[in-house]
């Protein structure tokens, strides 16, 4: 029997066909858990507490289809959520993914988006256990991540104390540099463009930081200055950052090409999802962490002892 041409778009395959396609490889959920396919998922919460966070990506606000491949968008959507779990000192247990897309979205696009999400979920050691699929005029990906602290105390933004060391794990400023390269049409600057399209946060560093006694932690989504600012405010302390500790030859090379200031990217660029944390002064930093500053008495964030002039990072409603 001739069933006609194979479906090519989500409208042609239909909601339940697409869900079946997306979840086909996701039947294997973690032990004691129930994954996609029922009215809700069930996740084990071994220590009785659940860490939970949500973040969304909106087309033309967080990504552009002419700048990012579908798998990049999938990576980024999972990464921005998993980084918040890691920033609490927790490990990811599961994700639920709500996807809104136009009816002419191709199945190839959905497959690649799905592959990017699955690959990054695997990097974060978590499974995609459910979601939602609806029609919308543009793409929106809204993800909720759940995590488990084991026997650790959560690392809050409020625990930094004067005398603590400030450290980061992961790269800073590369995503912003990549965004600048894309706006300038400089597709050749692949180091920074790749970092913008698909950040790879250092999830394990969040857990090792918690185990090593980190006093406060956050991922860097809006900018180093803005996110350290949240730690400073929540902790009632001042933070001073040493610019020399933030040098990155990849950024310097991109800055020469784009006639830009690498310091601006490192301090005010968002979307790298590096981890920033404070540690007691006598602690040996775990692997992957680099000292970039110090916690002091007072308020606010300074750079080499002085206020940073100009914008300090991304704000959703300013542009
Ligand atoms: N619409 C909302 N309703 C309730 N809480 C929110 C809302 N938006 C943000 N928050 C909370 O405000 C805090 C800061 O949010 P956000 O800046 O998005 O954090 P992050 O950069 O870690 O994603 C988080 O604790 C988040 O849960
Ligand atoms: C098309 C496009 N425009 C602008 C940006 C830049 N941008 C979008 S969101 C963002 C920062 C973080 O976004 P937010 O939604 O605040 O994430 P959260 O802090 O909640 O993790 C930046 C720098 C981009 N990536 N793509
Ligand atoms: Mg958020
Ligand atoms: Mg965060
Ligand atoms: Mg933000």
Number of helices: 10
For the record, the CATH class of the largest domain is: Alpha Beta
Helix content: 25-40%
Name the ligand types.
Answer: adenosine-5'-diphosphate, thiamine diphosphate, magnesium ion
**Number of strand elements:** 10
The rough form would be described as: globular
Taking all Cα atoms into account, the compactness measure Rg is 21 Å
- Sheet of most strands: 6 strands, mixed
Provide the β-strand percentage band.
15-25%
The CATH topology of the largest domain: Phosphoribosyl-aminoimidazole Synthetase, Chain A, domain 2
Q: CA-to-CA gap between the ends? A: 55 Å
Mean pLDDT, to the nearest integer, reads 95
Order of helices and strands: HHEHEHEEEHHHEHEHHEEE
CATH architecture of the largest domain: Alpha-Beta Complex
Structural domains: how many: 2
Under CATH, the homologous superfamily of the largest domain reads: PurM-like C-terminal domain
Uncertain segments: none
Binding site for Mg(2+) 4: 39, 53, 84
Binding site for Mg(2+) 2: 55, 84
Binding site for Mg(2+) 5: 222
EC number: 2.7.4.16
């Amino acid at each position: 029997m001739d069933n006609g041409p194979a479906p090519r778009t989500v409208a042609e395959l239909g909601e339940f066909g697409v869900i079946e396609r997306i979840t086909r490889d996701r039947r294997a959920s973690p032990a004691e858990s129930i994954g996609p396919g029922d009215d809700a998922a069930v996740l084990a919460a071994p220590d009785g507490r659940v860490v939970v966070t949500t973040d969304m990506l909106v087309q033309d606000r967080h990504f552009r289809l002419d700048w990012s491949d579908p798998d990049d968008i999938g990576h980024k959507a999972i990464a921005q959520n998993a980084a918040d779990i890691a920033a609490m000192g927790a490990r990811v247990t599961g994700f639920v993914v709500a996807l809104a897309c136009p009816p002419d979205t191709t199945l190839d696009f959905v497959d690649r988006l799905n592959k990017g999400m699955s690959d990054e979920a695997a990097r974060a050691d978590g499974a995609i256990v459910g979601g939602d699929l609806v029609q919308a005029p543009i793409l929106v990906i809204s993800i909720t991540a759940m995590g488990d602290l084991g026997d650790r105390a959560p690392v809050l933004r409020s625990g930094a104390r004067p005398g603590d060391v400030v450290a980061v794990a992961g790269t800073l400023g590369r995503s912003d540099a990549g965004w600048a390269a894309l706006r300038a049409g400089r597709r050749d600057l692949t180091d920074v463009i790749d970092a913008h399209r698909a950040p790879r946060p250092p999830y394990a560093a969040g857990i090792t930081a918690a185990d090593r006694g980190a006093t406060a932690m956050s991922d860097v989504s809006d900018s180093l200055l803005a996110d350290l600012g949240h730690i400073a405010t929540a902790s009632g302390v001042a933070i001073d950052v040493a610019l020399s500790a933030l040098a990155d030859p990849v950024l310097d090379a991109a800055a020469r090409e784009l006639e830009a200031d690498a310091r601006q990217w490192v301090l005010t660029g968002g979307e790298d999802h590096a981890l920033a944390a404070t540690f007691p002064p006598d602690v040996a930093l775990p692997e992957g962490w680099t000292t970039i500053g110090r916690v002091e008495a007072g308020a606010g964030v300074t750079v080499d002892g002085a206020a940073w002039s100009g914008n300090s990072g991304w704000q959703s409603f300013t542009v």
